[in-house]
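thought: fold this chain, then report.
action: predict
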Amino acid sequence: MKLLFGIILFCSLSSGCTKENNMPVVENTANPIITPNKTGNFSYLALGDSYTIGESVAQAESFPYQLQANLKKNGINVESPKIIAVTGWTTDELQGAITQAKVTEKFDIVTLLIGVNNQYRGYPLDTYKKEFSELLQTAIVFSGGRKARVFVVSIPDWGVTPFAKNNSKSAQTTATEIDTFNAAAEQITTAAGVSFTNITPDSRMAANDVSLIASDGLHPSGKMYTNWVNALAPKIMDVIK
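observation:
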């Protein structure tokens, strides 16, 4: 499958179905890869998976688009985000998509959120560390070498969602594994001199607040993404003034 900016890729599976060894995929109306409207002053690239495209929420409710709106509200004019993300992607799949996309431009803001599908499929932590580190360096290159313009977001805990109740892993096992992956990501990120935003504790609030979960019973709702943006936006505003 060729991944080109400007082409809308729709999920071919119906709502509620699953991929083998993969997080479940529901029909998505968001654009996996989106060409920005060149109307703003600051460019923004978002790299990730379903949590970046905003699976099961309207495009405007996804965290990259809410982040854009938040920054514009605070006087930072940001172009519509360019997004490289597809539901179900692991670190190696994101790497492959970036290579195929052949992006040469640089961006003022770059966000990276990847790893849940590595954890879900039971991929080795060492593989994640290697590929995440490589993706982080790629994100830094996309920022033009400006590490302060790169922002990593932690993996949320899907173990507290209704979907997880039918999973073979216990909520505690899932939480422990996600904490391990996040600890590795944070160590790599901070060692590289890049900002790391931990939204995982906030994601666990969904255990007692269903309004934080989208209609598919798995992914975050727009309300949860707002919480993520509220944690991330001040860090970006401190850098871009």
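thought: worth noting. The longest strand covers residues 44-48.
final: tokens above.
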